Amino acid sequence: MKRVLGIGNALVDIITSIDDDNILKKFDLPKGSMQLVDTKKSEIIKAGTKQLRRVFTSGGSSANTIHGLAMLGLNAGFIGSAGNDDTGDFFETDMKNAGVNTILFRRSSVSGTSVVFISPDSERTMATHLGAATELNAADLKKEFFNGYDILYLEGYLINNLSLVETACKMAKKSKMLVALDLASYNVVEANLQQFETIVRKFVDILFANELEAKVFTGLVLEKALALMSDSSEIAVLKVGYEGSWIKRGEEIIKISSLPVNCYDTTGAGDLYAAGFLYGFANDLNLEKCGLIGTIMAGKVIETTGSRMDKLKFKEIKKSIRKIISEN
Q1: I want to staple 80 with a disulfide (CB 3.0 to 4.6 A). Which of 10, 154, 212, 213 is the partner?
Q2: Which value, to the nearest 10 degrees, does the dihedral of the CA atoms of residues 285, 322, 294, 240 take?
Q3: Which domains does the chain have, with CATH numbers?
Q4: pTM over 0.85
Q5: Terminus-to-terminus CA distance in the chain, angstroms?
Q6: Mean model confidence pLDDT for the chain
Q7: Mean pLDDT across the stretch 79-93?
Q8: Is the pLDDT of residue 266 over 90?
């Protein structure tokens, strides 16, 4: 079984349910996007929403994926940066309780948080204050951190620190690891398109994107976008929400249908899809089974609030995975 190491922003999500989208307009947050906000705006948003229904949960794109992998029983690690505060303690405890080998640099700055607005149609919009998460840098990375791992998983939100991403990819390749990347958010891709193109072309073996991200990255849609993505990486995975997902490796193209679920909160759906896919890949399953496990993980997480599922949910998921593995 392969081992997976993730690097990403260590955040705590503040899941906030809203009755309509007017509050998004009030804070100038495009629906469905991830917007980086400074300390002042973050505090304004938190103060302006404290009367709403809120749930606190550990988050961060890569951390969500790694947490999911560990809960499935995979040997997984995570590298990040957080404040030396209660929020940082909350994040680190959550990761370690899941069994993640956590390397968390603690800083004097406040830990990062993301206010995640859940619209009535289950779409999520994020106002993210990265805080201490941005202080992770290339100099923090040591080659021994990569020893024993087979796959490096990166979130696209790190692209603002290109030196960190390039250094991580180079260290991974020197350790003969595969590199998997999720493009993260369409507006992040739009603002950093050239950097993404360079990283994907030079280093990425497995590329994840949703429909909007793929369109911005390639200028194309659906199968044409998938084809162009696969020109730059060995395996391309295109997530298309309730329509399922597409997977392409060379001439092999696989369509995975979504599952009938009661969608409550789409937070973490893409991250947990990646966790399921990588779990299958780490166990040398074929691409169809990898996609099916990813679909199960995504389907289960959108039935709950936030990106963390309890042990009962994972018990159900593991039962479904065993059935998939046993099928010819």
Answers
A1: 10
A2: 100
A3: 4-10+59-109+137-326 (3.40.1190.20)
A4: yes
A5: 20
A6: 95
A7: 96
A8: no
